[in-house]
Each structure stands twice: as structure tokens, then as C-alpha cells.
Amino acid sequence: MDYVSFKRWHLNGEIKSEWSGGKTDSVEHDIDGNIILKNSDYKNGNFRKRDIAYRTELYNYEGEITVLSNKH
Question: What's the pLDDT band for 9 if we cut at 50, 70, 90?
Fold first, then answer.
């Protein structure tokens, strides 16, 4: 199955996340509707996730590594 686009909502009716089909067309919103992630990076420009040849790094909003997963 190929998706064309998708949207998810918070319980209060605000859009939680949306994707319009392109590789870099993703947006995530907080519960108040503010954009917190755009195109897999945080709104402030910090990385959210980096895939490197031998590991994957996940970052918090402040740019600190929160998860480091080594690939074997």
C-alpha cells in the first residue's frame, strides 16, 4: 500500500502530525497547534534524528542526544 498523505490529531482536535507525500514534507504540532517539528528537524533548527552509517542518533528539542543506537 502506498500512502499519498496522512494527518493525525490530538484528542483536543488540533492536528498532531501531517505528511503530504514527499520525503521532506512532514510537520508535527504540539497540543496547542504550534509547529514543533518540520521536515524531521525541530523548529529551532536542531536535528531530531540522524542516520549515520553505523548508528542512529535521536535528539531532544535542545539538541542533546537522547537515544543512540549502534548498528551491527
Answer: very high
User: For residues 64 and 48, is the Cβ–Cβ distance under 8 A?
Assistant: no
- Which residues fall within 8 angstroms of residue 49, CB to CB, at 6 or more apart? 40, 56, 57, 58, 59
Q: From CA 7, how far away is CA 3, in angstroms rounded?
A: 11
Q: Is 43 exposed, middle or buried (0-12, 13-18, 19+ CB in 10 A)?
A: middle
pLDDT tens, residue by residue, 21-71: 665 667 778 888 887 777 667 777 777 777 666 777 788 888 888 888 887
Instruction: Determine how many CB atoms are found less than 10 A away from the CB of residue 29.
Output: 19
